[in-house]
């Protein structure tokens, strides 16, 4: 009996160890999101607060695309626009609309369905103004931005996002004045879809 038991145990161990890798190979591979090579598109809406006290706060809308170099690092391009009003101390009325394209690096951390992130980059900021009694005009300036936010994965490939960003721009010339410091803060909420 003892002679039969030892070979049986050896054969059983070999079969079990051989079957485990074969079973693992049959299981479908589930990739992570985000992962290197993933793309995402998103849109968001929010509020902006200019640093210049002669400008009213306003609404911010925009969208963008993002490509993932690694699961943690991505490159993002966004096109956004905001709308502000001139305040009474300037001595004239009208509106100022910054429309901007930014290119950023984004680094995220994974904490289950929550992915906090930081972002920074450069951009082109076009300031279009309207003032009563004179032709509309615009000027374009370079700027930098820095911010952070969080993504919440409510499905494997779709998220809700919120972001807080500071945009640093120098003086902005409009028809009747030079606005010292065209910088502003933005807080946005939106969604993103991964591919």
Task: Record the SSE blueprint.
Elements: H1 2-26, E1 39-50, E2 58-68, E3 73-82, E4 84-85, E5 95-108, E6 114-130, E7 137-155, E8 158-168, E9 172-174, E10 177-179, E11 184-194
Antiparallel strand pairs: 1-2, 1-11, 2-3, 3-5, 4-5, 5-6, 6-7, 7-8, 8-11, 9-10
Please give the number of β-strands: 11
Mean pLDDT reading: 90
Give the terminus-to-terminus CA distance: 61 Å
Structural class: mainly beta
Report the principal-axis shape.
rod-shaped
SSE sequence, one letter per element: HEEEEEEEEEEE
The low-confidence runs, each spanning 5 or more residues with pLDDT under 50, are: none
The percent range for strand residues is over 45%
- Specify the CATH architecture: Beta Barrel
Cα radius of gyration in angstroms: 27 Å
CATH topology-level fold name: Porin
Question: Can you list the strand order of the major beta sheet?
Answer: 1-2-3-5-6-7-8-11
* Tally of separate domains: 1
The biggest sheet amounts to: 8 strands, antiparallel, barrel
Number of helices: 1
Helix content: 10-25%
CATH secondary-structure class: Mainly Beta
Word description of this protein:
The chain is mainly β and 195 residues long. It has a single domain, classed as Porin (Beta Barrel). It has one helix and eleven strands. The strands form two sheets. It has an eight-stranded antiparallel β-barrel. A two-stranded antiparallel sheet has the order 9-10. A hairpin with a 4-residue loop joins strand 2 and strand 3. The longest helix has 25 residues. The protein starts with a helix and ends with a strand. The mean pLDDT is 90.
């Amino acid at each position: 009996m003892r002679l039969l038991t030892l070979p049986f145990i050896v054969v059983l161990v070999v079969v079990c160890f051989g079957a485990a890798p074969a079973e693992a190979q049959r299981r479908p591979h589930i990739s992570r999101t985000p992962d290197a090579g993933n793309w995402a598109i998103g849109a968001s809406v929010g509020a902006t607060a200019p640093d210049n006290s002669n400008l009213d706060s306003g609404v911010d809308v925009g969208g963008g695309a993002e490509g993932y170099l690694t699961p943690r690092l991505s490159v993002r391009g966004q096109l956004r626009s905001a709308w502000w009003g001139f305040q009474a101390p300037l001595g004239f009325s009208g509106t100022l609309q910054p429309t901007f394209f930014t290119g950023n690096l984004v680094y995220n951390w994974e904490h289950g369905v929550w992915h906090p992130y930081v972002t920074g980059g450069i951009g082109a900021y076009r300031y279009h103004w309207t003032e009563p009694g004179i032709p509309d005009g615009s000027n374009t300036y370079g700027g930098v931005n820095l911010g952070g936010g969080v993504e919440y994965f409510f499905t494997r490939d779709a998220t809700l996002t919120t972001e807080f960003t500071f945009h640093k721009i120098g003086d902005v010339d409009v028809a009747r004045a030079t606005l010292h410091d065209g910088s502003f803060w933005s807080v946005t909420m939106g969604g993103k879809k991964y591919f």
